[in-house]
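Sequence design from tokenized structure. All designs in this work follow the same two-part layout: the structure record, then the generated sequence. An example of the structure record is given first.
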């Protein structure tokens, strides 16, 4: 029998699973390699940009099911598995300011590295991801 809880209990359970996720050494190696070539930003800096109304495109690179559950306000979805295929049609200007995020900052670092290789010149990855965003109790949406 599957125990069903309130929405906040379910979200807390997902956050707990994400926080305890163990990444393999080889995965962490390629993330660190990507991070050596990209720029990163903090959760607080992204929140400030949103509050200030700064012009940038916020891109959620998590899985579609994660995005559907909730995401940062104003974010578009281009999952890590398809961002290289689809970004040119969604964001055609190579100098568009892009902030990529995921659950913790690993997938977004990998995606930022690839997007830069495609010629995008103003790309950053949000270190800490949704996990830290939630910890700070910043707003999330389903819209």
């Amino acid at each position: 029998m599957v125990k069903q809880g309130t929405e906040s209990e379910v979200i807390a359970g997902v956050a707990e699973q994400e926080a305890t996720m163990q990444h393999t050494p080889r995965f962490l190696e390629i993330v660190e390699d990507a991070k050596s070539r990209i720029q990163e930003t903090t959760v607080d800096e992204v929140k400030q940009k949103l509050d200030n109304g700064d012009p940038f495109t916020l891109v959620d690179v998590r899985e579609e099911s994660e995005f559907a559950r909730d995401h940062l306000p104003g974010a578009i979805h281009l999952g890590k598995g398809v961002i290289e295929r689809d970004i040119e049609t969604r964001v055609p200007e190579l100098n568009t300011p892009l902030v990529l995020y995921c659950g913790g900052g690993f997938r977004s670092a990998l995606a930022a590295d690839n997007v830069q290789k495609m010629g995008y010149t103003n790309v950053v990855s949000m270190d800490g991801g949704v996990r830290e965003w939630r910890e700070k109790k910043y707003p999330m949406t389903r819209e």
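The radius of gyration is 15 Å. We note this feature because it recurs in several other targets discussed in the main text.
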